[in-house]
Amino acid sequence: MTDLGPVAWPPEPIRTERLVLRAPESRDRPAFVELLASPQVHTYLGGARPRDQIERETPGTPEQWPGSFVAELDGSMIGHVLLRRPARHRPAAMGKIDLGYLFLPRAWGHGYAAEACFAALDWLDNALPGEAVVLATQTANTASMRLAGKLGFVEVERFHAWDADQWLGLRPPRRP
Ligand SMILES: CC(C)(COP(=O)(O)OP(=O)(O)OC[C@H]1O[C@@H](n2cnc3c(N)ncnc32)[C@H](O)[C@@H]1OP(=O)(O)O)[C@@H](O)C(=O)NCCC(=O)NCCS
User: Where do transmembrane segments lie in this chain (predicted)?
Assistant: First the structure.
């Protein structure tokens, strides 16, 4: 992974209508373990690793890096929004910022992921104006495909990788 760019981190917590977006803290560890170990969350992400391995490997304070946002509802973590610039990507996405999102199944179907991702993208538009954002997801991941559309991502290409059909979307650069 390469640097997101010259952004101030951690940011002041971002408050949306129902959520708070903030950098990860040690109190989020159980939710990170739950997210990483959930077979449901990893249905379209190549499957979850065993929980005991995740328990062993997850540090006391989850890793901090610019663009890693915890989404909190009523004081508890419900999801993780990731903005990063992967060192390797599809040629059409190389060098661009990539959006990822993982929410706990109990938080699905309430619009929380959309609310959190809109807020994270707004933060990015202010912190690094003029950046295009890409997003890759399995075409079979209908919830993720719907979310990508809501967030303004448009199809760049479909491709086959990791034994599945994949979709690459792009959100054109925006100025705040
Ligand atoms: C992808 C993922 C984040 C989508 O979560 P989600 O809760 O379905 O997404 P949203 O926040 O957009 O919520 C959408 C649903 O909430 C419903 N909803 C309920 N109340 C709502 C409200 N107040 N505002 C907005 N939507 C609301 C919407 O109707 C919508 O349902 P629909 O899609 O059936 O029409 C979630 O499925 C997930 O974490 N999956 C596992 C990880 C993963 O695969 N990530 C993708 C890797 S790129």
Answer: none
